[in-house]
Automatic annotation (TrEMBL), chain A:
PANTHER family attached to this UniProt entry: ARABINOSE-BINDING PROTEIN-RELATED (PTHR43649), DIACETYLCHITOBIOSE BINDING PROTEIN DASA (PTHR43649:SF12)
Name of the featured protein: Sugar ABC transporter substrate-binding protein
Subcellular location: Periplasm
UniProt family annotation: Belongs to the bacterial solute-binding protein 1 family.
InterPro entries recorded: Bact_solute-bd_prot1, SBP
Source organism per UniProt: Pseudomonas matsuisoli
Cellular-component GO terms for this entry: periplasmic space
Presence of keyword Nuclease: no
Keyword Signal: yes
TrEMBL record, chain B:
Protein name according to UniProt: Mannitol ABC transporter permease
Organism, as annotated: Pseudomonas matsuisoli
Domain ABC transmembrane type-1 per the UniProt entry, residue ranges: 73-263
Signal peptide: none
Membrane topology classification: Multi-pass membrane protein
Length: 435, 277
């Protein structure tokens, strides 16, 4: 055989062997800026891991949840890496549907990850997902409007103060609304906000015997405040506003105060999408009788189902995407303010705190968030803005609809609470609680 | 006092005006989608809505950069064509038998077939998902072709049946007298006569397959995902996305809208055939 032919043949052989050896990892993820950035930067991962081929499936959040639940419950093994939240991580991990995150690379430095985030992604002390980013809830307010009205936002405002500010800053003739809060019904929509609000009033979803507490005075105070403030000082159609609708209202200068996810910090300060980018202040989520459970904790994390076909390769990728190395790569390629927030202590460098003005409040909120001990009075459940039991999705959404109806004026607060109590009691009995 | 001629003219002008108003009303969402696709995210969310703005191609560039549009489009084309061909293979013999050799159960069968369209798809999601898993057809174009065929078969049978029923039986009998077999009767005589009807059935089936989203979202992930799955991937719970979603929707709708525009005559004929007798 001629040398050139031999060279060609061996090159072909080498190519075909590497193609055969390449392991495919299918990643199901959600469409948001951080995840899309991860997809883009994964080219760097592929350079150092040519033996792993990445397949991306980007889905809308609700579709993603539905797809992943079907996939994991039937053991279909369509995905090797799942993007899930804290709710799924602990429930699915507990059921044995997820691979435990053990034997991570030596340089992963798990101790650098915030304990509250690690705990939220664990079941019975075992970590089941690696956090990609985490968020809390904070208060956004318009510094220019506050200045004009001669008002000062305290570092730790109470809901009563927020209500007073909202009253003073509402000018409906100018389409300027004092407060924007989530009103769209859903366990992850209005109920996330309302539950943290109620936690601040000292309320809780269940007592130690799993009895719902909607008939207590704390829930009545909390819901009355929410409905009253939303009706008087909120934008029209507030009952159908979720995160995106409020973001659009705030960015177009129509909201004076907005309490929502800390992830919005980068959106409201981005001049390409916010008209008020230079006039936004950040402070902690409001408290009332207590500050326990007033700021939520949520994390998007990467997990590997037990039905995955390429578990080792999936773990290698998940560890890379949640590592310090990845954070450094984002800082280098896309700027330090785009590093996925809320998961690692090492992210919060001076450069990051300077580039992201909302980072300090987020960091402090994440540090004090305690899902295992979320309310003033003791509770039998884990979760600040949610209750980590399989029944919560259904119950939370039903209660959310009642509270949304109270905002529209379809039913009074008392009736909404009585119905919430009845529905929750019935569903919990049906599910066999107390267990 | 208006003359008869003038009354007729006013009458037809009025009907024309109403038709235009309805057409514009129906077209408006598509127009708005295309317009939004050239806006920035903040313009897309602006209130009151903006008709005049600084157009940008950023959304299209973003899609080009992030997703392989052609791969999704190819899946849509193969699934829609595959399902339509498979559907015709079943629908033509079924419609032939019902139109030319009816029994006392024919009407009941036709109505029963249509009644399957009333079942909410989510009700059979788990069994179908498990079947697809069992046969190793998850994330495969074959699974979607089979399911779309089953979904559209009642409509295809009904449409072709309506056409066949209007064809005089004598023509087929004459062919039979000349010694044609059943297959020859269908292929050589029936199909050439009912070309128009078959064409409009094909068109409708293609459009229905192209637009279907529930099953494509639930049964595909990366290999077989069609354009509807691509659109869904641009919706976001955190962050503004309307302009990008409009751009990807425009790209996804464009082929079928153009196709429908070219073949609208056949489509209208097919849909209204047999409506007035």
């Amino acid at each position: 055989m001629k040398p050139t032919k031999l060279l060609f043949a061996s090159a072909l052989l080498a190519l075909s062997t590497s193609a055969l050896a390449a392991e495919t990892v299918t990643i199901a993820t959600v469409n948001n800026a951080d995840m899309i950035r991860m997809q883009r930067l994964s080219a760097e991962f592929q350079k150092t891991h040519p033996d792993i081929k990445l397949n991306w499936v980007v889905l809308e959040e609700n579709v993603l949840r539905q797809r992943l639940t079907t996939d994991i419950a039937t053991g279909s093994g369509q995905f090797d890496v799942l993007t899930i939240g804290m709710y799924e991580a602990s429930l699915w991990g507990d059921r044995g549907w997820l691979e435990p995150m053990k034997d991570l690379p030596a340089d992963y430095d798990l101790d650098d990850v915030f304990p509250s985030v690690r705990e939220g992604l664990s079941a019975k002390g075992q970590l089941y997902a690696l956090p990609f980013y985490a968020e809390s809830s904070i208060t956004y307010y318009r510094t220019d409007l506050f200045k004009q009205a001669g008002l000062t936002m305290p570092e730790h405002p109470t809901w009563d103060q927020i209500g007073e500010f909202a009253a003073k800053l509402t000018d409906k003739s100018k389409e300027q609304y004092g407060i924007c809060l989530r009103g769209k019904a859903g366990w992850g929509e209005n109920m996330a906000l309302v539950t943290t609000l109620a936690n601040g009033y000292g309320a809780r979803w269940f007592d130690e015997q799993w009895q719902p507490e909607f008939d207590g005075p704390e829930w009545k105070q909390a819901l009355s405040f929410y409905v009253d403030t939303m009706t008087k000082y909120g934008p029209p159609g507030a009952s159908s506003n979720g995160f995106n609708e409020n973001l659009a209202l705030f960015n177009s200068g129509k909201c004076a105060i907005w309490v929502d996810a800390s992830v919005a910090g980068s959106f409201v300060t981005d001049e390409s999408q916010s008209k008020v980018a230079d006039d936004v202040g950040f402070t902690f989520a409001p408290k009332q009788a207590t500050d326990k459970g007033t700021a939520w904790l949520y994390s998007w994390a990467l997990a590997i189902p037990t039905s995955a076909k390429s578990k080792e390769a999936a773990k290698t990728f998940s560890a890379w995407a949640t590592s310090k190395e990845y954070a450094a790569l984002v800082a280098e390629k896309e700027g330090v303010s785009n590093v996925p927030p809320g998961t690692r202590q090492s992210t919060y460098t001076d450069a990051y705190l300077k580039a992201a003005p909302f980072a300090k409040v987020t960091l402090e909120s994440l540090k004090v968030a305690d899902p295992a001990n979320p309310t003033e009075k003791p509770v039998p459940y884990v979760g600040i803005q949610l209750v980590t039991i399989p029944e919560f999705q259904a119950i939370g959404t039903q209660v959310g609809k009642l509270f949304s109806a109270a905002v529209t004026g379809q039913m009074p607060v008392d009736q909404a609470l009585t119905s919430a109590q009845a529905i929750t009691t019935r569903e919990m009995k049906r599910a066999g609680y107390p267990k | 006092m208006l003359t008869l001629k003038q009354t007729r003219r006013v009458h037809s002008a009025l009907i024309g005006l109403i038709a235009w108003a309805i057409a514009l009303l129906l077209f408006f969402p598509i127009f708005w989608m295309v317009l939004t696709s050239f806006k920035t995210e903040i313009d897309a969310f602006a209130s009151p809505p903006q008709f005049i703005f600084h157009p940008t191609l950023d959304n299209y560039l973003h899609i080009q950069e992030r997703s392989g549009y052609l791969r999704f489009a190819w899946n849509s084309i193969t699934i829609a064509l595959g399902s339509t061909v498979l559907g015709l293979l079943f629908a033509i013999p079924a419609a032939y038998s019902m139109a030319f050799h009816p029994t006392h159960r024919t009407k009941g069968t036709l109505l029963w077939m249509l009644s399957t369209k009333m079942l909410p798809p989510v009700g059979v999601l788990v069994p179908i998902y498990l079947l697809a898993k069992q046969f190793g057809l998850l994330d495969s174009r074959i699974a979607l072709i089979v399911i779309y065929t089953l979904i559209n078969l009642p409509i295809m049978v009904w449409m072709i049946y309506t056409y066949f029923k209007d064809i005089p039986r004598d023509i087929l009998e004459a062919a039979r007298m000349d010694g044609a077999s059943t297959l020859q009767e269908i292929v050589r005589v029936l199909l050439p006569i009912s070309k128009g009807g078959i064409a409009s059935t094909v068109l409708l089936s293609l459009i229905l397959c192209w637009n279907e989203a529930f099953w494509s979202l639930n049964l595909t992930s990366s290999q077989a995902a069609p354009l509807t799955a691509l659109i869904a991937s641009y919706s976001s719970p955190e962050g503004l996305f309307w302009a990008k979603l409009s751009a990807v929707s425009t790209l996804a709708c464009a082929p079928i809208v153009i196709f429908g525009w070219i073949s609208q005559k056949q489509l209208v004929r097919g849909l209204s055939f047999g409506a007035v007798k």
